[in-house]
C-alpha cells in the first residue's frame, strides 16, 4: 500500500490528509510476516486442542457427538481470534505526509489509538533504518526510526516491522529533508552559495580567528 | 455418563451462542468503521467474518441436534 500523492486508492489514507497543502509521502502497514507467526501458532493450537478433546471424548466418554460439537466450538473460537488478528493488522497504518506523521492503530470494538506529530514545529529530522535479526533480513522487514531534534532526543517515531525499510527509509529521508528546508522552524543554512556541514563551518571560523590573532 | 454429556452439550450450546453474538457485533463494528473512516476492507476479510458466523451457526445446529437427541433418549429411557 505504498504510493505517492494521487496514486492512492485507500479512502482512509485520503481522509488523513486534513491540513492545507498536505501531500502524502508514504503510507505503510506492517509486514505480513508479523501476523504470520501468531496465525500459524493459532492453527497449530487449534488442531492440538481438537486432538486432546477427541482423545478425551472418544476414550473416556465414548461420544462422537461431543467430539463434533467441541471441535466446531474450538474452531470457531480460533477463527474468531484469527479474524481479529487480520482486521487489527489491516487497521494499523503509518502515514507520513509533508505536514505530519501519523500512526493509526484501530482495533474495532477494542481500542482506537492515534498518534500524530506535526512537522511544522520540528527543527531537525534524522531517519535511521534498522533490521535486527535473520528473519528481518530474509523477509526484507525492519524498522524506520525517525528522530526529531536529536540532540535533545525530544521525540522518536518508529515505523516498526514494515516492508522494504531501506528503500522506504531513503525515500523518506530525502522527502523529509526537502520538507525541513521549507519549514519555518527548520534549520536554515545562512551560506546558501556553498552548502557546507556544521563541522566545516566551525573549523573555518576557528581558523579565521587564529589568523586574526596572529596579525594583531 | 449421560449427565456429563448433557451438561457438556448445554455448555457448548451456550458458548456457541455467546460466540455468535460476539461475531455478529464484531462484524457490524468492523463494517461500521469501514464506512466511518472510508477504509476499503478487503473482500477476503469480509468473507472471513461471514465464514466465522456461518461456522458458529453450524456449531449451534449440530450441538442443538445432539442435545435434543440426548434429551429424547433420556425421556424414553
> What percentage of the residues of chain B does DSSP assign to strands (E)?
under 5%
H/I helix tally of chain B: 2
Helix content bin of chain A: 40-55%
| Biggest interchain interface, per-side counts | A-B, 30 and 37 residues
Radius of gyration of chain A: 26 Å
Succession of helices and strands of chain A? HEHHEEEEHEEHH
Provide the residue-averaged pLDDT of chain A. 77
Low-confidence stretches of chain A: 1-9, 189-216
Structural class of chain B: mainly alpha
Tell me the fraction of residues in β-strands of chain A, as a range. 15-25%
Largest sheet of chain B: none
Helix content of chain B: over 70%
Shape of chain A: elongated
Q: If you had to describe this structure to a student in words, what would you say it looks like?
A:
The complex is a heterodimer of chains A (216) and B (77). Chain A is built from 6 helices and 7 strands. With 216 residues, chain A is of the alpha+beta class. A 4-stranded antiparallel beta sheet of chain A has the order 1-2-3-4. In chain A, α2 runs antiparallel to α3. The N and C termini of chain A lie far apart (65 Å). Chain B is elongated and about 55 Å long. Chain B has one domain. Chain B starts with a helix and ends with a helix. Chain B has 2 helices and no strands. The model of chain B has no long low-confidence stretch (mean pLDDT 86). Chain B is mainly α. The chains are: A alpha+beta (216), B mainly alpha (77). At the A-B interface, α1 and α3 of A face α1 and α2 of B.
Amino acid at each position: 500500500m505504498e504510493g505517492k500523492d494521487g496514486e492512492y486508492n485507500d479512502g482512509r489514507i485520503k481522509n488523513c490528509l486534513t491540513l492545507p497543502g498536505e501531500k502524502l509521502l508514504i503510507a505503510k502497514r506492517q509486514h505480513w510476516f508479523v501476523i504470520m507467526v501468531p496465525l500459524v501458532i493459532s492453527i497449530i493450537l487449534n488442531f492440538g486442542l481438537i486432538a486432546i478433546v477427541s482423545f478425551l471424548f472418544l476414550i473416556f466418554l465414548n461420544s462422537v457427538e461431543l467430539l463434533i460439537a467441541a471441535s466446531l466450538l474450538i474452531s470457531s473460537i480460533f477463527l474468531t481470534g484469527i479474524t481479529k488478528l487480520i482486521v487489527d493488522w489491516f487497521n494499523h497504518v503509518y502515514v507520513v505526509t509533508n505536514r505530519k506523521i501519523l500512526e493509526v492503530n484501530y482495533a474495532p470494538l477494542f481500542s482506537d489509538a492515534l498518534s500524530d506529530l506535526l512537522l511544522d514545529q520540528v527543527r531537525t529530522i534524522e531517519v535511521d533504518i534498522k533490521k535486527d535479526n535473520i528473519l528481518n533480513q530474509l523477509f526484507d522487514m525492519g524498522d524506520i526510526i525517525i528522530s526529531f531534534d536529536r540532540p535533545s532526543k525530544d521525540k522518536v517515531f518508529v515505523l516498526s516491522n514494515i516492508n522494504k525499510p531501506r528503500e522506504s527509509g531513503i525515500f523518506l529521508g530525502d522527502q523529509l529533508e526537502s520538507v525541513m528546508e521549507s519549514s519555518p522552524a527548520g534549520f536554515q543554512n545562512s551560506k546558501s552559495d556553498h552548502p557546507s556541514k556544521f563541522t566545516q563551518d566551525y573549523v573555518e571560523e576557528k581558523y579565521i580567528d587564529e589568523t586574526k590573532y596572529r596579525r594583531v | 455418563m449421560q449427565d456429563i454429556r448433557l451438561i457438556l452439550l448445554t455448555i457448548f450450546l451456550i458458548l456457541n451462542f455467546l460466540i455468535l453474538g460476539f461475531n455478529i457485533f464484531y462484524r457490524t463494528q468492523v463494517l461500521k468503521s469501514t464506512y466511518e473512516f472510508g477504509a476499503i476492507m478487503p473482500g477476503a476479510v469480509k468473507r472471513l467474518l461471514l465464514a466465522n458466523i456461518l461456522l458458529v451457526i453450524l456449531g449451534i445446529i449440530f450441538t442443538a441436534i445432539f442435545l435434543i437427541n440426548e434429551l429424547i433418549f433420556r425421556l424414553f429411557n
